[in-house]
Amino acid sequence: MFLKKLFSRTPAPVPRMRPLINLDDARARHVDPEVPSPCISVCQMNPATDLCSGCYRTVEEIAAWSGLGDQARLVVWERIEARQQPQG
Per-residue pLDDT for 47 more than 70? Predict the structure, then answer.
């Protein structure tokens, strides 16, 4: 009975890893009230993913950044963080 109860438990959810490049850390590094840039000065495009190896943005997102409002920048941040999660 004990073993049946032990093995019938639902496994604990696997904690989601925090992305290396994330909005919370970027906000901690910047004092401006606007949404901070994800750029970490590692500007190299990965031809396999079409993303910057430093900030995980596309060329289009990088080029558009300075003209985006805070809401659109937050959407880009969501994409950046999602791109760093394991696919499975």
Answer: yes
